[in-house]
Amino acid sequence: MTDRLFHETGADETPLVSVIVPVYNVEEYVAECLDSILSQTYRNIEILCVNDQSADRSPDILAQYRKKDDRIRIINNRENRGLSFSRNAGLLEASGEYVLFIDSDDHIDPDTVEKCVESADKDQTDLVVFSMVNYEEDGGKEEQLKLLSKYDAQKVYSGNEILYEAYVNKKDWPVNAVLCLYRRSFLAEHGITFVEGILHEDNLFSYLCLKYSQRIRLLPIPFYHRRIRSNSIITSTHNLLHKTESMCVIVAFLKEELRKEDQTVDERILTELLRAKLKILLAYYLKIDSFPKDFKFRFKESYIEIISVSAGLYNGYLPLKLTPEDMALLRSNDNVLIYGSGKTGQAVAKLLTERDIQSYRFVVTHNDGDRENVSMIDDVKEDPQNTVVIIASLYHGKEMEENARKNGYAKFIHPYF
Description:
By secondary structure, the chain is an alpha/beta fold. Helix content is 38%, strand content 20%. The protein contains 13 helices and 17 strands.
């Protein structure tokens, strides 16, 4: 290649590698991270440290390291913008033939860059993917990620082959952006960057890389060491809300991919990939009782919109549930109407029976089939002040509630939320 950036090492020429390190309030860890990069056996690297308005000593530590090694460059965000923005800022400033991302509280083995560049040059790959070890910072357990062991390390894969193996053949795949050496021209050619403002940003970045990549080499070696921090925000309520909204964005993106007529990715792959992300979204959904009420309302609207458009993908994946508040409402009223007599209505009835609520009746908007033990809601004369209506439909729930309100009912349970 005529546009390669080289470093002379005797008779050898080595391409430049840009190592991008987003930095935010990691004064306890960033030195170890930088030491691991500066200790690389591969010398021709530039280290782009993107300071995302850290409020601790991280900027001072970066400045000290910059004085020691001129391969380090410091980029300062004007305001705190998050991980995706910082990685994108690093990409804009990168000049290497290859790019590597490292989170500033993690570290890598000394031969990481050397082995990855060697493989990338030999096989002319778009991506070289490697493995990692998760370790607890308090000296607890270590766990090696073994997903790559399910693949043939001697083969050069296309991205579509990886996607098929991962989601149709259920081999799974590490979506972590830090577990890959990228050819920078490949990312630029396809306009691949990180979606800003969301968590789980690696999901879409990884998908786009696999969507367009023609040559991928796997190195099932745990070069990367990911620190599991005891004070991580991962388990915080705020973070859970953000993760939920972020997964909604990812699901919506994949829905749009599935709608495209000129699909680069096989429809079966997209369908299974969407199912996999939905399972994650639903895991968050099951914790929704702990969410603030205002968020619960906003999330409910976006969630219904996403699911109702792709109803065929969700069969068997959307659980029903009755919250403690729902049960209190049911037990404090004498009459229960299950609005909807189909499969969802029957599932609601089963749920009520399991909760020792035996008295209920089915109502519908139109009883065209003259179904037995089912009444039209307009014909029911229960006391609205002493009646709870359970809406047994996700897709038509809003219209059904409006219709029930016209009949005077004001107490509703949506068993999906």
